[in-house]
Amino acid sequence: MSEAPQKTFYLETFGCQMNAHDSEKVVGTLVSQGYRQVPTVEEASLVLYNTCSIRDKAEQKVFHRLADYKKLEAQGKKFGVLGCVAQQEGNKIFERAPHVSLVCGSASYRNLPQMLIQIEDGARRVTGLDDRATDECFETEFTARTNPHRGYITIIEGCDKFCSYCVVPFTRGKERSRTSLSVLAEARQMADLGYSEIQLLGQNVNSYRDPAGRKSFAELLLAVGEVQSIKRVRFTTSHPRDFGRDIVEAIDSSPALCDHVHLPVQSGSTRMLLAMQRLYTRDKYQECISWIKSARRDISITTDVIVGFPGETEADFEQTLSLLDEVHYDGVFAFKYSPRPNTPAIGLEDAIPDAEKSRRLNVLLERQRSIQKSRNQKHIEEHCEVMVEGKNEVRNQWIGRTSQNKTLNFTADSEARIQPGSYVPVRVTAAFPNSLVGELVGAVSAS
Ligand code: 5AD
Ligand code: SF4
Fold it and tell me: How far apart are CA 112 and CA 34, in angstroms?
């Protein structure tokens, strides 16, 4: 008797680390249901896209992909759209791409096994769409982590901030935190599996509220840092409104907490911050920065900026540039404003021409490039511990990451026992805007 052919799936992920980690959970769930992951669309019986709708370009990508592969439907392939575009567009996706048979937002992933059975039984249109009020979280024992050394843990899902430009409160629902007990259990489990770095994830990680009332966010950071054999703890993304001094004190007191804070500012103009509904002023943001800078440890600071938000004048933009000069960020992710459906700002006229948005973006990136170069030059001659991520064979250089989250490419003599996942000391010898260069300290070193 011949066996039924194995069910196969292909999954492509767009967007942020939350999506990347959701995909790890989705993969684990599908594998637990008897599916096998394959590397190409052609080999798969089920094709899934985990989508992002933060900006228009990200959203368009999934529709291009669906159009590219539409002809493969005739071979019996099924298509599914997961994530933020699924939640945002809902049933409209079936109209735009009739070959799609599954549309599922992130708050419904725990129902995926039942949805898969429906699709296998021939259902044409299966949906998992929640309203904002959902309490659902996606905790699963079946996470298929892609990196064997650094692992993500979601501690809070959703967002209640409603920044006027942002779709996330609509696509990911209201804020809901996991208990600190369950987060710590997952951290210990990961340590037992050999992970040495943990990254705590949430749209607003520092809005974390332990439903059992046991730990504040800073206390949770400390507790994860104390888990045996965890060497590095990172967290992203923090919101300035909920950023307390206790977070800086935690970093100062626990060597396992990495010396890096990502604190999106979005604009240096208080007038724009008000229009963006960011819930803080430039001065209040600067106060958070002063706490970070007065820490005993040298904490790197990175941020997100939006240029060309409706009503942004040249003077507002200049204020963003002056903030970059004052803070001296170690990294900036900058974006042109993109109007998004459902958001409060959609009612405002998007009057700044795209060419002007591009100009502002380039001016900002150019300014930041020279700031980053001078920031990085300060590391020359320092000894940094790096976690080894891989090797660039062409350049015969190892690729490492510092606690400050900077890439440090280094050379080592051929006898050194280096492998991905090990922690080694490196002396910094040169600096570029986006990376450092160095050499291994000592002849042989391994974790
Ligand atoms: N347009 C441009 N950038 C946006 N971001 C969020 N929404 C938008 C939008 N509508 C940026 C913000 C946020 C980052 C993840 O994406 O800077 O911090
Ligand atoms: Fe979006 Fe603002 Fe929530 Fe961040 S805090 S996810 S930018 S609404």
Answer: 13
